User: Which sequence fits this backbone?
């Protein structure tokens, strides 16, 4: 698997392998008690490991180390939504079990299958495939998002997965709380942007399963098809347009697993990647959405992403991060907040 860091059995950050092995052998028929693990790099929140007993392999997910805000890294949420979607058109890994006891590895965790595929993080990786394949892959990305938002939550046992009424107002409040809890510097545009979105929250455009962090590097791709949608830690029932808006803000700012100052270096900046207007046209053709208040959604998405990056920046300053690129996370926060304010000017409400 690309992008993994090998670790000795007794020195894996964030896992107690002896206790994990004992748990796996009890939860998964045939699993051995003696396991090794490698930390998979690329994620910027929950930690992901490839675990093996020498015969089988599994993926283990747990929350990040250190500063974690309430509900931001909910293992049970990820596990439940992927389990519910396993028989739908949405490609998700098969799940094997979850554990709420922090005494096993130090935090709640769950176990899922290892799915074959590549996670594309940068434009250079897609450029090697060529513009035609990049267009196909990025089209599949948008089609998968549209298909997700067409799933009826009650049909897959997720009718009580969230409270869709008032979702947007709760998002405004939630991300203010997260930003306030992680702020390390003066960010005047943060206060202005929050004030603006809080004062004019529209009614929800629809109710659907919201992924909460939908972008290409949260997918696995094999033969130019999406084989798995990953990173469901912020999934809930809510307004699907919030996913579309966040994906577009990611594209505009080149934010993904590799954070840099130039959006062209991100996967969505690769030649052949579908344009913003094409993304919107394709998504709306699948979902028949109403974009009347889309400026609000873009403003909220920019505020949310700024809060996420400021949280990563906070953990970097506290020495509580695992992986590369965290030193750059805070650089885009001021520009995101400014862009959020600009997006509100285009709101047609």
Assistant:
């Amino acid at each position: 698997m690309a992008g993994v860091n090998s670790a000795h059995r007794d020195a894996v950050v964030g896992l107690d392998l002896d206790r994990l092995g004992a748990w796996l052998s009890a939860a998964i028929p045939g699993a051995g008690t003696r396991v090794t693990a490698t930390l998979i790099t690329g994620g910027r929140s929950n930690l992901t490991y490839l675990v093996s007993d020498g015969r089988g392999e599994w993926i283990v997910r747990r929350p990040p180390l250190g500063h974690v805000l309430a509900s931001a890294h909910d293992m049970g949420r990820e596990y439940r939504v992927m389990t519910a979607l396993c028989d739908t058109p949405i490609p998700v890994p098969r799940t094997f079990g979850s554990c709420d006891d922090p005494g096993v590895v130090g935090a709640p965790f769950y176990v899922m299958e290892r799915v074959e595929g590549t996670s594309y993080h940068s434009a250079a990786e897609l450029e090697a495939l060529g513009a035609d394949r990049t267009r196909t892959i990025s089209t599949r990305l948008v089609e998968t998002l549209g298909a997700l938002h067409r799933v009826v939550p009650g049909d897959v046992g997720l009718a009580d997965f969230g409270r869709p009424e008032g979702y947007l107002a709760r998002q405004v409040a939630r991300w203010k709380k997260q930003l306030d809890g992680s702020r390390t510097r003066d960010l005047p545009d943060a206060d202005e942007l929050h004030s603006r979105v809080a004062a004019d929250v529209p009614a929800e455009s629809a109710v659907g399963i919201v992924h909460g962090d939908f972008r290409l590097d949260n997918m696995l791709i094999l033969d130019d098809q999406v084989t798995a949608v990953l990173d469901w830690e912020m999934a809930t029932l809510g307004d699907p347009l919030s996913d579309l808006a966040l994906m577009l803000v990611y594209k505009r700012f080149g934010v993904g697993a590799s954070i840099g100052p130039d959006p062209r270096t991100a996967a969505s900046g690769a030649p052949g990647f579908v344009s913003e207007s094409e993304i919107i046209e394709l998504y709306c053709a699948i979902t028949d959405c109403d974009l009347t208040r889309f400026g609000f959604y873009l403003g909220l998405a920019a505020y949310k992403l700024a809060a996420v990056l400021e949280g990563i920046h906070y953990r970097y300053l506290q020495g509580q991060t695992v992986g590369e690129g965290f030193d750059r996370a805070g650089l885009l926060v001021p520009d995101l907040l400014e862009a959020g304010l600009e997006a509100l000017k285009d709101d047609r409400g």
